[in-house]
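R.M. (postdoc): so does anyone remember the format we settled on? I'll just put the structure tokens first.
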């Protein structure tokens, strides 16, 4: 006798690849989409999170298509030698950049303030690694 759907015995069997409940066996599933819900039924939030997580981890997702973990949309900024020279000079003077200096550098170097902020964050981490390696 097969146990009812979602009983402890059935769950143990199903996790080992055993029997499915009769209702689940009859329910058509779209390939690669996970659980489907009737069009007029509300979709539980947990199902939406699972569906989004499955989409993000799928091989064709944009974030993985580029081979890195960078978010889609903005390519990596390649700073010119002149930009790097000015950024490094400013970093040597002060490791933490103020708002006015950030605005000035952004205008002079033709970069956004968020790019300047990110560069300083990354440069501080590089400095930290270098000083730790030197010890």
């Amino acid at each position: 006798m097969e146990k009812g759907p979602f009983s402890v015995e059935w769950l143990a069997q199903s996790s080992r690849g055993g029997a499915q409940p009769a209702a689940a066996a009859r329910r058509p599933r779209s390939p690669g989409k996970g659980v489907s819900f009737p069009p007029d039924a509300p979709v539980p939030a947990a199902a939406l999170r699972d569906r989004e997580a499955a989409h993000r981890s799928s091989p064709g997702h944009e974030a993985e298509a580029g081979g890195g973990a960078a978010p889609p949309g903005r390519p990596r900024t390649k700073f010119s030698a002149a930009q790097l020279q000015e950024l490094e000079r400013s970093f040597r003077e002060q490791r933490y950049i103020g708002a006015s200096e950030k605005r000035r550098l952004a205008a002079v170097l033709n970069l956004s303030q968020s790019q300047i902020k990110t560069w300083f964050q990354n440069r501080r981490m590089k400095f930290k690694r270098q000083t730790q390696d030197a010890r």
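R.M.: ...and that's the designed sequence above, right after the tokens. Also worth knowing: Confidence is low (pLDDT under 50) at residues 27-32, 61-65. Residues 83 and 89 are 10 Å apart (CA to CA).
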